[in-house]
Design a protein that fits this description.
The chain is mostly beta strands and 191 residues long. 2% of the residues lie in helices and 52% in strands. The chain is built from 1 helix and 17 strands. The strands form 4 sheets. Strands 3, 4, 5, 6, 7, 8, 9, 10, 11, 14 and 15 form an 11-stranded antiparallel beta sheet that branches. It has a two-stranded antiparallel ribbon with strand order 1-17. The protein has a two-stranded antiparallel sheet with strand order 2-16. A hairpin with a 3-residue loop joins strand 4 and strand 5.
Length: 191
């Protein structure tokens, strides 16, 4: 019986890493991406683009603090891009090919939470496969998310304006190729 070790190293390509800091300007100024009133609490993160480069949308978690159901009216909600253009939005679960079609509201029961993302439909296109163009957010850029929320028969508009306080250019990171970082070992047993 012979024991032997063989090492397999998975060679991965380089990746890009970018970092940014954002704040809310409206409806209240806040360095924390969180807003709360009597009916909702909503926190935001910027949705990174492919390979971590740029930002393609706005992700959020919204909690219904009221005693009745609320609903997000996607057809009346929009994103304002840093260049000032307004775009309809698509959210999680929307097929790219259906991005311009009417979208039914999402109902959030009392005490319920919804995690979702809003992407500008104008930045989703087909060119040798479906692609999402970056929102082109740079340091100092302002952009927004308008959410139309139906609250017990009345639609309220929540207009959030964000500012990119600092956006760093992506840094190329080469993975370290060592036995410990690869983590793949194979024990060979031969008779």
């Amino acid at each position: 019986l012979t024991l032997g070790w063989a090492l397999f190293v998975v060679i991965a390509g380089s990746i890009a890493v970018s970092a940014a800091t954002f704040r809310i300007l409206q409806p209240v100024q806040s360095d924390v991406l969180l807003y709360s009133d009597a009916n909702i609490e909503i926190s935001f993160t910027m949705r990174p683009g492919e390979y971590g480069i740029g930002y393609e949308g706005i992700s959020f978690t919204i909690a219904n603090k009221s005693t009745h159901a609320i609903a997000i009216d996607w057809d009346r909600s929009s994103i304002t891009l840093p260049n000032g253009q307004t775009s309809n939005i698509m959210h999680e679960g929307t097929l790219f090919i259906s991005r311009s079609a009417s979208t039914p509201p999402t109902t959030i029961p009392p005490g319920g939470k919804l995690y979702d993302s809003a992407l500008p439909t104008r930045n989703v296109f087909y060119s040798d496969g479906w692609q999402i163009q970056s929102m082109a957010i740079k340091t100092g850029s302002q952009f927004g998310l308008y959410l139309a929320i139906n609250d017990d028969g009345t639609t309220s508009g929540y207009n959030f304006t964000f500012e990119a306080v600092k956006v760093e250019e992506p840094v190329k990171v080469e993975p370290e190729l060592s036995a410990l970082s690869a983590g793949f070992f194979l024990l060979l047993i031969t008779l």
